Structures are given as C-alpha cells and as structure tokens.
Amino acid sequence: MESGYIKDYKDGIPLYERLGKNVSESIQILLDSSNIKMLSVIYRVKEVESFVEKIERKGYEHPNEVEDVCGVRIICYYQKDVNRIIEILEKEFDVHESVNKQENLKYDQFGYRSHHVMASIKKDWEKTPNFKGLSVLRCEIQVRTVLMHAWAEIEHNLAYKNEAQTPEQFRRKLYRISAKLEEADEQFEDLKKESEEYRRELHNRKSDFYKDAELNIDSLQAFMDSNFPKRKKDIESTGVLLNELISHNISLSDLAEAWIKVKPHFSKIENDYWQTGPFKAWAQAGIARAVLDLTNLQYRNRRKMSPHITKIEQLEKRYLQ
C-alpha cells in the first residue's frame, strides 16, 4: 500500500498540470507582446518517482517542502533577453525567490548557468476560470539562453555537474568548454547589438542608400522598412526574398528602380489584384515580389505561378505600358 503523501501527490498532479500549462501559455503571450523571441517555453510536472527520490535525498520532513513540483523552462537567444524576461516575471507574478546560478560560480569554476525564479500566480488571476484555485501553488521558472541550455543538457548526459563530481583529468577541458560557451553568449550579444546598429544606420541614411549598398538581409530589410513601413514585416520572409534576388541576379538598386516605376500606380494595382482574392494587401516581401513581377520578365517567368502571372500581365498592360 502506498503512503499517504504519495497518494496525495498523485491526486494533485492534475492541478499542477493545469498550473504548468496555463503559466507557460501566459508567459508565451507576455514575451510575444514584449517582442522577445524565444526558442521554447515548456513545462513539466515531476513524476512520482522523482518526487519521492527528492524527498528522500533532501531529507525533507514534509512533502510540501518540494517546491519545484511544477517547472517551466524558457529558452531564449541572448543574455540580455534573460534579464528582460526576469523583469517581466517579477512584474507579472508573485516572486518568492530569484537566483542567478551563474553568480554562484567563481571565475575559475565551470558549471550550470541559468536563472531560477520561484513564483506563484497573483490572486487576481484566479478571476479567470483556467487559473481558479492555482494561486496557492508554486512553480519554478528557469530562464536560460540556448547555449546555457546546451551546457545543461550535455552536463546532464555526462553526469559531471560540478568539479567535485568530475575526474581531475577532465576538469581543465570542461572548464575551457564552459568558458567558451560563456564567451560565445557574450559575442552573440555583441553581434546582435552591432547588427541592430548597422540596420539603424542604413535606415537613417539618405533615401538613396541602396545605390551603393551591399545586398544582404539587413540592407534589404532597411529598404522595405523605408518604402513599405506600414506593411507586415517578417524577417524570415525577407530571407527567402533575398535568396530569390540573389538567384535572379537582382541588385538592391534594381529593386529600387523597379519600385520607382511602379510606385505611382501601386495603390490601384494592389486594389485590382486583390478585388477577388482572400486578402486585401501584400506584406513587405509580397510588395517587392509584385514589383519585380511587373517589371522584370526574367524574374516573372522563373516564378511560374500561372494564375498569379496572368493577373500580373494584365495589370502591367493596364498601368505600366
């Protein structure tokens, strides 16, 4: 017969599952609204065996001492985003403890880097049905970068969690790997800042910067931001468009000249094109493609989109010839 606290734990698992699901979904919404990109937001509830093992290993006198029954993990791309996410968590949740594991490492130590927040939902959240009854529960929220996560996963696989557990002949190598990953996190952060500054410089330059600008994803995005500022922007779509331009040997200057030709008629062209379609307007990359379809026969023919091309040919005759 299982002990009483194990039965109680099993009975409470659905409640913790609801907590994890709703907290992770809420965090996703909060980060999206703050324009913080992340690799993933996931949750887990401790399995019974893991719960019992922790009680025995830690020597807890009461099962309630296990606070990380529900865990949420946020994996982002940059160290700066870790700090921003922590600020959001501290604002939106009741935070009981916040620990930066990296601060516990001395300069000559290797080990786990992550930020852990012990939190519960605010009482007001219980006004919505999906959070009802959950404010009395706590969850541990881990925030780490992709590289921090890579270290944690490999460390777990090797079972070398700290120097005391590591054979001496491997310590130096692990220290070097840990230092390289930490340095890589910093360098990716620097690269992100430099990239953002480069994009700002392009955007702030005179409007004809494209005449001597190298064609790359930043210059192409800057061109579209400058000329189609109110249209939907998606960097992945910009990357696909960039590959098309390169493969068709189209320069940024070529695209700009095509836009100059189409721009006076663009509003009418777009209205005519979409009058029978499911959408009403092109996104940024869509405008660029339409402009090239209208002005560059080679690009248009290689695209091989018959219904679209038929419309484009009609619009070209109507407005540009």
Automatic annotation (TrEMBL):
> InterPro entries annotated for this entry?
NT_sf, RelA_SpoT
| One of the protein's GO biological processes | guanosine tetraphosphate metabolic process
Task: Write out the entry's keywords from A to Z.
Answer: Coiled coil
User: Does the record carry Coiled coil as a key word?
Assistant: yes
UniProt KW Nuclease keyword: no
Q: Which SUPFAM superfamilies match?
A: Nucleotidyltransferase
Q: Which residues form a coiled coil?
A: 174-208
According to the entry, every stretch annotated as the RelA/SpoT domain falls at: 43-166
Q: Which domain of life is it from?
A: Bacteria
Protein name as annotated: RelA/SpoT domain-containing protein
